[in-house]
Each structure stands twice: as C-alpha cells, then as structure tokens.
Prior knowledge:
Blueprint: H1 2-12, E1 16-19, H2 22-29, E2 36-40, E3 45-49, H3 54-60, E4 66-69, H4 73-83, E5 88-91, H5 98-107, E6 112-114, H6 118-127, H7 131-151, H8 161-174, E7 179-180, E8 185-188, E9 209-214, E10 216-218, E11 221-222, E12 225-230, H9 236-254, H10 262-275, E13 287-289, E14 296-300, E15 313-316, E16 319-322, E17 326-329, E18 332-337, E19 340-343
Parallel strand pairs: 1-5, 3-4, 5-6
Antiparallel strand pairs: 1-2, 2-3, 7-10, 8-9, 9-12, 10-11, 13-14, 15-18, 16-17, 18-19
Helix pairs in contact: 1-6, 7-8, 9-10
Amino acid sequence: MSIEKLKYMLRxxxxxxxIMSEDNVRYFTSFSSTNGYLLVTGENAFFLTDSRYIEAARxxxxxxDGVLLFExxxxxxxxxVNELSIKTLSVEGARTTVKRxxxxxxxxxxxxxxxxxxxxxxxxxxxxxxEEECRKIIEAQRIAEKALEMLLPKIRVxxxxxxxxxxxxxxxxxxxAQALSFETIAVSGKNGSMPHGIPGDKKIESGDxxxxxxxxxxKDYHSDMTRxxxxxxxxxxxxxxxxxxxxxxxxxxxxxxxGKKCSDIDKVARDIIAEKGYGEYFGHGLGHGVGVxxxxxxxxxxxxxxxxxxxxxxxxxxxxxxxxxFGVRIEDMLYVTEDGFINLTECPKxxxxx
Length: 354
C-alpha cells in the first residue's frame, strides 16, 4: 500500500509528514473532501477532518490508524504532534502557501519544518500505478472513447465548436464519468493552431481540421486523449502535417519502455517533426503522467532527466501548430512495462475525413 511505502520513507529519515493538498490526501485515503488532512509518521497515520465529513470518513477510510474530528485544525494538530513526539515535520512545499506554513510554524514552534523532500517522495509513489489504479484509468478512457464515437456523426460542416464540446462533455457524464478530466478542447480551422484553445462560436467549414483534447474521471482517476479529424477535404499540406505528427507519435511510442530517459523519448518525436521542417511549430513537451491529477510526474519533455519505470502511465502527444492556418495533435496513453508498453488508447488515429 502506498501509505505504508510513505511510512517507510519517513522512518528512513526520522520525520513525519503533514499532507494538506486535496489530491494527495485523496490518493492516500481514497476519500475526497475540501477540509481533510493526513498526518503520517514512520509508524502511524491519522486523518483529521471537520463535522461535515467525519461520518463518511470513518466509514470509508481504511488506510489510517484513526479518523479524528476537529473544530480548529491547527489547534487540534498541536496535541497530536506532541503526543507522537514529532520533531521534524515535512510538508508539501510545492503545494503549501507561505501564509499557511507560517501559521503552522507559529502553532508548532518546537518542530523543525522541512519543505524540500515530501513532494518528490509522493511524486515517486504516485507515478507507479497499481493494477487497481490502472483499471480505473482504463475505464475512464473507455468512457471517453465511447463518447467520441457517439459524437462523430455530429462533426460536420456548420457544427459549432462550443456545442460539440458541450455534447462531448454531456455524453461522457451520461456514460458514467464522475467528472471531466479538464475543460474539453474543441478547436477547428485557424483556431487549431492554439494548443489549448477554448471552444467558441466558430462553425466548422469544409477543409477544416478539428482537434478534440478531452478526458473522463472514473473513481478519482483521469484519462487523457487527443484526436484531430478533417471535415470535407484536406490539402496536400494538411495531409503532410497530419502524417508527420502521426509518424512522430507512433515512432516515439515504439521507443517507450522501462529504463528509457523521458528526454530521449521526446527527442524521437521532435527530430521527426524537425526533419520535415516543422520543428518551430512544436513548442510543448511530448507528454506527461496521468493519475489522480491530469498532469502528474513524470514529464516527457526535452528537459526531463527522469527514467521511465514499469508502472508509469504517460501520454505521448506530439503536435504541429501553424499560426493562422491549422493545428494537429494526436495523443495516446501508455502503460510502461519492463520491455515496452501497453497502449491504453483504442481509438483509431489514421487520418479520418468526415
């Protein structure tokens, strides 16, 4: 269990951890709340929450030694820290505000606070997915794929970006998604050159590419995929760009396995795009981890020295975006294995002209 692995890490450096971010608390407890905290030592773990969540938390959380009610979190934390003889307390430096840290230091003046290690330790734990986590992500992906399949007949000349986006969102929720992974991207024509463009009132025209980037959440785990379709017809340039992105994606995917450096995987795709003369139009990283958050460790980018491990789930999503003309992005999710990968995305990606 992940919380047991965290206890081991904390024993190794004789520290305790105070986890306050909703995402990390949910990861370790499988319980969602807007006011819940996790105190973990090398031997024990306690969940603290208020009266709104206490009953549900006591029924749900099985990974801790106690679920405790508080009226004032900081005031309740002091006697617990003293009782457990905590001398060093690690907090999520990347997720904790200066104000909150200063308040905690004031209440716990006898404790040494550490802000540099806990984020990295939790990132490493979250990056390697269990079979159960993988099953949830696959279910989220299947919901998203089914929703896109149902949307395809409605993608035609005259359809409106925003309306297609809303229809896709509604269908994912209707099919069982707990939530949307993020705000769905549906951009066409010239708008497609903006990788994170916002769906607007633009109507699809014949000759447009339209890119959908979207995902579903299932039991707190996200999916992520991108597909680009043509409507009516494509020019020679459009076809060349699409086939370049597709070849870059497939080749990078084939390079994925445990032991490979993320920057090297990124380079495989980036080199193919650059060799075709489109290098300046691919500005973002090749991919990222996916789990209880849509963007997780590891990053697959030119700057990432992370080495892939079996159990990582990452996206591979190269793109080419030509300002004032169009854009193309294709994205799959992969489960990394010792000798390769399992592609969790089943949706076809050869050029489809609707």
